[in-house]
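The methods section describes the discrete structure representation at length, but only in general terms. What matters is that the chain and its backbone geometry are given together, residue for residue. For illustration, here is how one protein appears when written out as sequence plus structure tokens:
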Amino acid sequence: MGTYSYLGAVDSPSINSTSANNRIPETYTGIPPLKLLPGTGIYSGRLISSDTHEEYSNLNIQSITSLAGALEEDDQYLFNSSGGRWQSPLTGATIGLQLLEISSGLNIANEAGENILNSLGDIYTLGGGDDFSFTPTFWTQKTATPGTYSATFKLVDLSSNNYLESGTFSFDFRVEKVPEPSTTIALGFAGLLALSISHLKKRTVKTLN
């Protein structure tokens, strides 16, 4: 995530700051946006992002060096991909997450439940060097309009070491329509009615026999 590429002549290239797969879930997989689920506690009355153990639902952000000692084959594949070019340490860097775009109605909270990145261009400090770990919570009101909600970011270095910023990357979420209570009740009554009719038919058949 967050990769970018150069296009054009070597002496005057243009920067392509993103790619079609710089999204969560990655576009090529065909997986739909992550579903926002009803929250509890401080998130009561809201729909929130949650780690459901489904693909891409764990939104924890860490340096790739956190995979160095991983035992999972997929993690080691990622860590050593592209000839190991992603393994360069971030020594001395102060990593900031900068908000570039966000859908109306979508909000972001830190691990304490405090709203962050309230305006475009805001930066939230994740930590220093390779030693940082951050899991944002994305949320909407429970009454949010059904549809897709997205947020786009880039990583920047807030230190004086002048590490280059990352490419842009996005998280995509979905709010699904919740059935109206009256509809749910009506369906319940319909089921009970069908069950009652079924029992009545059985009793009638037995009486006739």
